[in-house]
Structures are given as C-alpha cells and as structure tokens.
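INFO batch 0412 | record 1 of 1 | parsing
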Amino acid sequence: MEYASFLREHIENLVPLSDEAFEIVLNAFVPHAVSKKEYLISVGQKVSAEYLVVKGCLKTAAYDDADKEHIIQFAMENWWVSDYPAYVKLGKAEMDVQALEDSFVLGLTMEARAGLAAKVPQMLTFWERKALGGYVATQKRVLSLLRNSAKEKYELLLDQYPQLFQRVPKKMIAHYLGVSRETLSRLHKYD
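INFO prediction complete | emitting tokens
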C-alpha cells in the first residue's frame, strides 16, 4: 500500500498518531483509481463518501437551469472532495465530481468516519482543523467573487495555485473564476 505513507503524512501534518492508531485509520479508507474524464460522483447519485486526493486533479461542478457549468472546486493532491451537503445527509448529489487527470483517491464513508472518531479521538482534532481551513478558503473565495475584478481574481488564483494553470484547461479556469474564456485569454496574455 504505497498510499499509506501519503495518508500518514497528510494526517500527521496536523495531529500525531501512534502506529496502532494509524493502522485503524488506514483500514477505514477505501482506495479508488479514477480515470481521466470519469465521474467519481454524478448528479443524482447517492453520495456515500468523501475523498482525499492522493494523485491527480478533479473538479466539482454544479449546473444552472440553462445547464451552464459552474465549477465550484478543483481538487489536487492533499485536497478533499465530495458533494458535502449530500455526503453529510447521505443524500443525492447536486454536483458532479469528475477526474481531469488519471487520479487516485482514498474514500471515507460517513460510517467509517464515525467509527474513527470513536476509536481514534485525534481524528476529531484533524477534521476540525481541516474544516476550519475549508471554511476560511470558501469565505475567501466568495469574497473574491463579490469584490474583485476579473484581473484580481485571476492574479490571486495564479499566485495561490500556479500549478492549476499547467493542469487544467483555460476554459475550466474561466468557469471557476466566473469570467469568459476571452477575458481569461486577455488576462493570461498580459501576465
């Protein structure tokens, strides 16, 4: 299991684990290989897991009434991804999660998560810290969408995640930023 050291390092960046505790954690995760363009989660599907990206890049997207795609998130190595409202309620997805590259993820069901919380209390601290980081990132993104010009949004994304521009098609980056492909091309040209 070559992903074991990845998972341990990912968790121990926030909380220490004994070998025994890590063995319990490792056994709670289910590995999944996801091919490029394959859907990990599809709209309407019951969502039973959240996923830690070990390798690859995925996108989370929602669609409006005109079936226009709105990219909510990109998820690369060390990022977590799911349709979280559906995951928490064990409901049906309102968003797609699709691999943009051949990817490898570790799935964690809500049941396995609850079991870990009971058996390995440090995981509660881990998830609290992850959740707080996620809330901060989400609020920053919403504020950026509300306050910043297209140029400022582009520069922030380029500054924070330059690797996205090598891994994700420009059209998707434009959707994520809420700008046209032409606007993104103009901004990229003056970069």
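INFO post-check: The mean pLDDT is 91.
INFO record closed
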